[in-house]
Input
Amino acid sequence: MSDPVSPDKLSQAEINKDSVQSVAEAAATAVGEVATIITAAVKDVATALGGFATEVFEIRESARKASEDVDD
Output
């Protein structure tokens, strides 16, 4: 005859539920960390491209002014 589950012991179903819950929490944390990394990377790339575009505009403006000075 099998022993009934004593009050201080967990059933296999509860152990399995706790395991699944822990895995789900770990997965959610990992996904959140990856999303944060990707968000920061996209922001950094956008900042770098914006800085590059600003430099290109400044170089173009300087070249235009230099060209006007030569033509005068």
Remarks:
- The CA atoms of residues 10 and 16 lie 10 Å apart.
- The mean pLDDT is 91.
- The helical segments are 12-71.
